[in-house]
UniProtKB/TrEMBL annotation:
Lineage: Bacteria, Bacillati, Actinomycetota, Actinomycetes, Micromonosporales
Highest taxon in the source lineage: Bacteria
Domain Cellulose-binding Sde182 C-terminal: 409-488
Residues in Cellulose-binding Sde182 nucleoside hydrolase-like domain copies: 40-335
Disordered as annotated region, ranges: 8-39
Transmembrane segments: none
Native source organism of the sequence: Dactylosporangium salmoneum
The protein's name in its UniProt record: DUF1593 domain-containing protein
Listed Low complexity bias regions: 8-35
Pfam families noted in UniProt: Sde0182_C, Sde182_NH-like
Length: 489
């Protein structure tokens, strides 16, 4: 049975918390006109500072996912040691995650006032498992975490199942190896392996241990990998070298202090920034917290969320449809196909005119930061009316269209806003996501209605990606998009 790679075909049965109704009566995903089926995900992480910050953001967006597991793994940068032969290396312990869930519990009642589907703290605690943490690439031990991943991989829920690797892949590798050891002598093994390979999608951030190339790819050659080898750096420690100057304000101290660090509740009090004077116990080698270090960064400048792209590309409530196909691009970056699935690729940076491997991520920085800022407000706002919420965009003609060369298409956009805010409209062509090699001329691009003529040099099968942005005038200003894909007949 073929399981297509699209969030719209994820498991129909969400967990009991994912189906709960918030007090505003609509889930954020439903407000945005997206599929009500949430992506099934397992998060694995290694406890680095940027994992901690990514996990904080993840908790604010946890209502958008059907979370199947939160698993602690090691990496080449962080491991616990085995108490005998292997000494701990930059080990931050495993209790910080429980502490963050405790802090999430304090803002959970407020979050539920603004959107449905936030998982209960008890549910999150039940999903937290310790995996293979003793050493880098260690996958010999069967652990609680590996057995949990194995169980979810083998369940009867349809795919896809997204396994996100914020650290090493060793716990996931151990789970797959346990499945192989159990079933490889079974006559049905080829069918079992095929079904799993069609179901599981791994999102890999860098190669943080050797198990992807050493075990997973050789033994599971048809398993799909979304491989982010460099694009993530644009939302990580070296962001000043990657993010265009026009978008850097959303990562600088004044923005961070106003929207996250000051007066936004106990969970965001744990959010780490450059030179903030808050050491990370166990990771003495990471000196970025020290006020006398990294002087090119201001105190409270954004530090890193290098792992957040792995879940941001699944955030289809925004209307960008990036989970349908990683080549489309969205808040989690954009990818090109390769032998194993997808690899991070380039967009043309309009500032430099060059193909830029960071720009598929950095083009969205201001938007995704504003969206997070609104959710930060949700956590401290006990009334729906005390915070901003995303507008809703739609396109009368639909999102998947066909047109002939020379045909003129007119697209009618429409927006509404739950807070009664004023809306503005903008249409633009995402040329990097197109398979058509040229560009189209949009009329009325700054209005709700746009039109264009399919160019004469377009070939049958070419696709043209048009993005409608609807932006409110709330604080912070929020957007909802619609992606119209026009296929040339």
């Amino acid at each position: 049975m073929t399981l297509p790679l699209t969030a719209a075909t994820a498991a129909q049965a969400a967990n009991e918390d994912g189906n709960s109704q918030g007090q505003n009566g609509n889930s954020q995903g439903q407000n945005q006109g997206s599929s009500t089926t949430k992506p099934r995900i397992i998060v694995s992480q290694d406890g680095e500072v940027d994992d901690m910050d990514s996990f904080i953001r993840f908790l604010y967006y946890s209502n958008e996912f059907d979370i199947q597991g939160i698993v602690y793994s090691s990496s080449r940068y962080h491991y616990a040691g085995d108490g005998v032969n292997v000494q701990p290396f930059r080990w931050t312990g495993t209790e910080w995650l429980n502490h963050y869930i405790d802090l999430y519990e304090q803002i959970y009642p407020n979050l539920r006032k603004h959107a449905d589907g936030y998982p209960s703290p008890e549910k999150l605690r039940s999903l937290y498992k310790i995996g293979n943490i003793d050493n880098v690439s260690e996958m010999d031990k069967v652990t609680e975490g590996s057995e949990w991943i194995k169980k979810v991989v083998l369940d009867n829920q349809p795919g896809p199942l997204y396994i996100q690797s914020w650290g090493g892949l060793n716990t996931t590798a151990r789970a797959l190896k346990s499945i192989q050891e159990q079933y490889q002598n079974d006559p049905k093994w080829p069918d079992i392996q095929r079904k799993i390979s069609q179901k599981v999608v791994i999102y890999n951030i860098l190669d943080q241990d050797s198990t992807l190339n050493g075990y997973i790819k050789p033994n599971w050659p048809d398993l799909k990998i979304v491989d982010n080898q460099s694009q993530f750096w644009s939302f990580a420690y070296l962001w000043t070298r990657q993010v265009p100057a026009a978008n850097q304000y959303a990562l600088k101290a004044p923005y961070m202090e106003q929207n996250f660090l000051n007066g936004h509740g106990p969970l965001l009090e744990q959010y780490r920034t450059y030179r903030d004077g808050k050491p990370t116990p166990g990771d003495d080698q990471n000196n970025r917290w020290r006020p006398d270090q990294n002087l090119t960064y201001g105190v409270h400048d954004f530090i890193s969320e290098g792992d957040s792209p792995s879940f941001m590309y699944l955030l289809d409530f925004n209307g960008l449809r990036s989970s349908e196909n990683p080549t489309y691009g969205g808040w989690g970056g954009r990818f090109a196909t390769n032998a194993s699935g997808w690899i991070d690729t380039t967009d043309v940076n309009p500032t430099t005119g060059a193909n830029d491997r960071a720009y598929p991520q950095t083009r969205w920085v201001a938007d995704l930061q504003n969206d997070f800022a609104a959710r930060a407000d949700w956590g401290v706002s006990s009334k729906y009316s005390d915070a901003n919420h995303n507008p809703t965009a739609s396109v009368r003609e639909g999102l998947n269209l066909q047109a002939k060369v020379g045909q003129t298409l007119t697209l009618h956009g429409r927006g509404s806003d739950p807070d009664g805010n004023k809306l503005t409209y903008r249409w633009w062509e995402y040329t990097d996501a197109d398979t058509y090699a040229g560009t189209v001329a949009l009329s009325g691009a700054d209005t709700a209605t746009t039109s264009f003529t399919v160019p004469a040099d377009a070939k049958p099968g070419d696709t043209i990606h048009l993005i409608l942005e609807v932006t409110d005038n709330g604080i912070p200003a929020l957007k909802h998009y619609q992606r119209v894909i026009v296929t040339v007949k």
